[in-house]
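ARCHIVE RECORD
Type: protein–small molecule complex
Small molecule: NAP
Source of inputs: curated submission
Record status: active
Notes field left blank by submitter.
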Amino acid sequence: MSTDRRRKVCVVGASGKLGRYMVRHALDRDYEVVGVCRERSVEKLAEFADRITIVPGPTNDREVIRKAVAGCDGVLTVLVPWGVRQYSSGTAQAVLDHAEPDARLIFSCGWHITRDGKGKYSWRFKAVVRVVAWLARLVRAVELDDQVEACRRIFASDRRWTVVRGSDLEEGESQGLPVWSRHVGDPVLASNRTRRVDFALFMVEALTDDTLVREAPAIVGCRTPSALAHARG
Ligand SMILES: NC(=O)c1ccc[n+]([C@@H]2O[C@H](COP(=O)([O-])OP(=O)(O)OC[C@H]3O[C@@H](n4cnc5c(N)ncnc54)[C@H](OP(=O)(O)O)[C@@H]3O)[C@@H](O)[C@H]2O)c1
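STRUCTURE (tokenized, with ligand):
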């Protein structure tokens, strides 16, 4: 990202927990921030209202995204599987199509996404994903497959993207930048726990880390037992 003027980033899905942490990290780093969220959630951004520009609307609305990402050096997108109308893939596609040509595009998802099929998942993890997907289809509120489709499109794109795959999340004070690996199942990730505030930190730091371009890091908290054991070698 260019550094000779105030840099501008867009947070797509800014009103959620991860989104608000990203807004805070971005403001701390003196980015100019544009936030996109559903109209009904604008009030969740009240604490930032005088410091950011809010573009209300569904994040899979191409016109909303076109307006929000104009002139942005980076776009931080929370990919959520809510709804049954291709919310995730619609959001990802709008960002891929409308972001500035050289913009850094950072997307969030979970460990269940795999880029190359080489991740090793425990039977427990696979069972949980299967049950969640089944329940989701039953209540027609969540579309896990659509988050998979969103990531398939991102992986196929020649944009400057990074897909950050979060472990199980918890709240709490920041512990620092999470560590990462390309493959779920690698010992460093065994603790499967990251503070949400640090997930957001990783996303924001990725904006300026070119080693993460076209990578899909699976992350884990840097103070978790598995990360500490890895650091000790
Ligand atoms: N939760 C976990 O344990 C976990 C684990 C690994 C990875 N992740 C990843 O982390 C990211 C953030 O997840 P999170 O669970 O922490 O959620 P979150 O940050 O609270 O964000 C939820 C987002 O979903 C939106 N949303 C909620 N209901 C919706 C609906 N019916 N239609 C459209 N949008 C809706 C919210 O918008 P409003 O503010 O408008 O409601 C908000 O932007 C996601 O990419 C997720 O895949 C989560």
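CURATOR ANNOTATION: Helices lie at 17-28, 62-69, 87-98, 123-139, 144-156, 196-206, 225-232.
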